[in-house]
């Protein structure tokens, strides 16, 4: 059984760790509120744009649009969006596991575009081809970052380095629920594709409108994925730090109980020794 000095040292150490995890939880909660507001505000625009793209693709021949035309897939690309830091529970591990499953299931050659250090470091050690790598996205992704990422993905697609581009990220539902998922980015297959243009009048032609909207759609799709991923990361970190704080409290309680028992045993032993010494003097 550890002595009282060791128990006191462990209690102080765990209490110090508890202060850190509690502070990290509060910071993550503050960041989560801001990220959640951004996600909620961006979703309606992204959904409406996808609806418009779907109507336009239904009104024209998709084969005339390089970003929407289907072609033989010689190499598939996956964009893995993970965090730059850990201490977020299973957030990064779940994304990496999903990416591994998709890569292993692929019968075609594959390549990765990594966003975040965790995904990059993991697959770099496993000799997976990484054609682009982005880090230091920050806690608040902006449209400039999304535009640059989308530009490079479109460039890889148009030059033929990748014939298909998929996004692997975590969709945010709540602080307790984040679901890793895979979405197609290129070639663009917006929901509603195949529907006709209805009674809409396009000026200029539907093909011209679609040509100008497709790059914008890629930017918004990437931006939405970054926002969802960052909100999910903050939610996962807040939950993980809350659990760590509670676990620390339980450990402190157990160690305090052990300390009190050890102290009581020491006091009892001293009393016994005093009584035994008094009896010996009689």
UniProtKB/TrEMBL annotation:
Gene name in the database record: atpG
Gene3D superfamilies linked: 3.40.1380.10, ATP synthase, gamma subunit, helix hairpin domain
This protein's species is Neomoorella stamsii
Keyword line: ATP synthesis, Cell membrane, CF(1), Hydrogen ion transport, Ion transport, Membrane, Transport
Is Electron transport there in the keyword field? no
Q: What is its main location?
A: membrane
The reply to whether NADP figures as a keyword in the UniProt entry is no
Q: Report the domain of life of the source organism.
A: Bacteria
| GO BP field | proton motive force-driven plasma membrane ATP synthesis
- Specify the protein name: ATP synthase gamma chain
Mind giving the lineage of the organism this protein is from? Bacteria, Bacillati, Bacillota, Clostridia, Neomoorellales
Molecular function terms, GO-annotated: ATP binding; proton-transporting ATP synthase activity, rotational mechanism
Q: Where in the cell is it found?
A: Cell membrane; Membrane
Q: How does it sit in the membrane?
A: Peripheral membrane protein
How does this protein assemble?
Answer: F-type ATPases have 2 components, CF(1) - the catalytic core - and CF(0) - the membrane proton channel. CF(1) has five subunits: alpha(3), beta(3), gamma(1), delta(1), epsilon(1). CF(0) has three main subunits: a, b and c.
UniProt-listed InterPro entries: ATP_synth_F1_ATPase_gsu, ATP_synth_F1_gsu, ATP_synth_F1_gsu_CS
Annotated Gene Ontology cellular component terms: plasma membrane; proton-transporting ATP synthase complex
| Family classification | Belongs to the ATPase gamma chain family.
Question: What PROSITE patterns does the record tag this protein with?
Answer: ATPASE_GAMMA
**Job of this protein:** Produces ATP from ADP in the presence of a proton gradient across the membrane. The gamma chain is believed to be important in regulating ATPase activity and the flow of protons through the CF(0) complex.
Task: Cite the PANTHER family for this sequence.
Answer: ATP SYNTHASE GAMMA CHAIN (PTHR11693), ATP SYNTHASE SUBUNIT GAMMA, MITOCHONDRIAL (PTHR11693:SF22)
Record HAMAP family = ATP_synth_gamma_bact (MF_00815)
């Amino acid at each position: 059984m550890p002595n009282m000095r060791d128990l006191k040292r462990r209690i102080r150490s765990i209490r110090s760790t508890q202060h850190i995890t509690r502070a990290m939880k509060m910071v993550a909660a503050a960041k989560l509120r801001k990220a959640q507001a951004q996600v909620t505000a961006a979703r309606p625009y992204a959904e409406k744009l996808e609806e418009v793209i779907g109507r336009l693709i239904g009104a024209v021949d998709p084969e005339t649009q390089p970003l929407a035309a289907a072609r033989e897939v010689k190499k598939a690309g996956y964009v893995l969006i993970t965090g730059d830091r850990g201490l977020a529970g299973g957030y990064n591990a779940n994304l990496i596991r999903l990416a591994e499953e998709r890569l292993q299931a692929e019968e075609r050659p594959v390549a990765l575009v990594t966003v975040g250090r965790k995904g990059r470091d993991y697959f770099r050690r496993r000799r997976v081809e990484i054609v682009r790598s982005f880090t230091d996205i920050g806690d608040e992704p902006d449209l400039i970052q999304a535009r640059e990422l989308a530009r490079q993905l479109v460039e890889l697609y148009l030059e033929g380095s990748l014939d298909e581009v998929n996004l692997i990220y975590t969709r945010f539902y709540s602080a307790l629920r984040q679901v890793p998922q895979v979405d197609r980015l290129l070639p663009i297959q917006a929901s509603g594709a195949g529907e006709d243009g209805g009674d809409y009048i396009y000026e200029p032609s539907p093909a011209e409108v679609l040509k100008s909207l497709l790059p914008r759609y890629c930017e918004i799709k990437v931006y939405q994925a970054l926002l969802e991923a960052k909100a999910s990361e903050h939610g996962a970190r807040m939950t993980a730090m809350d659990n760590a704080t509670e676990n620390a409290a339980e450990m402190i309680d157990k160690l305090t109980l052990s300390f009190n028992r050890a102290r009581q045993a020491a006091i009892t032993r001293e009393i016994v020794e005093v009584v035994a010494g008094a009896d010996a003097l009689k």
